[in-house]
Amino acid sequence: MKKFLTLGSLAAATTLIPGLRAFVLLVLVQAAYGSAAAVTLGVSVQLLGITLVSVVGLSITTVFRVKRSKSPESARAVAVDTGSLAFAGASVVVTVAIVLGALIPLVLHEIDHVQFLSYWYISILSLVTYVFTAWQTGLLQAKNADSHGFRITAVTSLASVVGAFTITQTIESPWQALPLIAFLNFSFDLCALYLRTRSVRSVWGSTTDGLWNAAIQTFLANAPATFKKLPGVARATLDGLILMFVFFIAGLVASWQDAGIGAAVLAVIAFMRTLVLPLKQFGMVAGRLNLTSGDSKPTSMPRMLGIVTLLLTAGAMILVVLYQLDVFPPGVSALLIALIIAQLALEPISGFLFASMKIMVRPDFAMKPLYFISLLFTIPALLIIGFTGYSSAEAVWAVLLLARVAFSFSVLVLYRRARLPIRAEQVGR
Question: Least C-beta-crowded within 10 Å: which of 287, 327, 345, 428?
């Protein structure tokens, strides 16, 4: 259990910090400039979050391929190849981001278009750093140097929040403040990438000499083939992408009715993302540890579930405290808090157990129910209440909660049916 907590906490904390930074930024902007600016920032944060989740697949691909390398030379070849994937991914991300910048103002009339475009197009620079950071993070994790990434993420995120606080306290105009915050975030994201690159060199040694040049040359020489590999990389985090897309639609629908409601939903989404996405890391660690144990019946899983439930209970208590301190926007009601706590009660199953089974059984475990529930119920239901004018914060979250109930039930059913083939060769899959 100690190893589970240590490894899980380290992996989860590295994922949690960017979400926590986004939540704090939303609170700061809401307090300084009101709901309209908070919605503008919140929409951008949602899109940035989708990118963050999608590029995790590059880290996973890098780790697994390096782990299977037989020599330093083959490990370097893998690092170069995954680096070429990073250059391909960055070009795709920039292209999609530019298109989204043009489309979002056409879809979401309630936001200030000048504020959004000024923040978003500067944030595209951060998107590029996310892709290469995922590559460098994978290289560190492949050498079990996770602590390097955690320290870098913690320091640069804290500096970013301090800088944003200074901006919101000294600049009165949101039209000036939001672009400055975006550029500040990019500056620290670039700094984090530079520090990770230095850490990779210190951990890998001379193996990484000329790595960046070799990666871009490989990409330019084999661009068509490299682009064809990207869907396979993204598939590793498809469940996270679906969750982020559903959250994005929820925030969008809530903003259609009222900026205050949109700000409320976006704030609680930022809080939930901060808790739920790191939970996947605990689940993956649990899956690997159970596989390593060689136990055909993972008897430690109930204890791990108990630990995760305690952690989520602490998260629910923090949520209540934040509500009592009026940290959230005015549109966050007691009923909305109750709905969120009910969803947290489901996350040991829908988040932790789901992620564990993806390691222990197969990578596509429970993906069919997730597709079905998200595409045929959650998104249509959100759009219906949005178009009919009933998209209150409580109604939006009630839809999300019902979807999570259905998915949790599906995970439990499939878990009971699953055969858990514990084989040494599956470790690290």
Answer: 428
Q: What is the number of structural domains in the chain?
A: 1
DSSP three-state, residue 222: coil
Whether 139 and 200 have beta carbons less than 8 Å apart is answered as yes
In whole angstroms, what is the distance from residue 399 CA to residue 250 CA?
9
Interatomic CA distance for residues 51 and 92, integer angstroms: 11
Where does residue 366 fall: left (phi above 0), alpha (psi -120 to 50 degrees), or beta otherwise?
left
* Residues 6+ positions from 105 with CB-CB distance below 8 Å: 111, 113, 116, 117
Helix (H, G, I), strand (E, B) or coil at 240: helix
Cα separation, 186 vs 130, in Å, equals 10
- Helix (H, G, I), strand (E, B), or coil: what is residue 328? coil
* Contact criterion met (CB below 8 Å) for 251 and 43: yes
Task: Provide the mean pLDDT of the chain.
Answer: 84
pLDDT of residue 420: 53
Q: Is 221's pLDDT higher than 90?
A: yes
Task: Name the one residue in this structure whose structure tokens are 């320290």.
Answer: 151
Pick the more confident residue, 325 or 70.
325
Whole-number CA gyration radius for the chain? 21
Cα dihedral across residues 39, 40, 43, 45: positive or negative = negative
Span 94-105, average pLDDT: 88
With the CA atoms of 384, 387, 390 and 394 taken in that order, what torsion angle do they form, in degrees rounded to the nearest 10?
60
Cβ atoms of residues 415 and 353 within 8 Å: yes
Contact (CB, 8 A) for 343 and 404: yes
pTM, full prediction: 0.73
Domain range enclosing 185: 2-426
The two structure tokens encoding residue 410? 């599906």
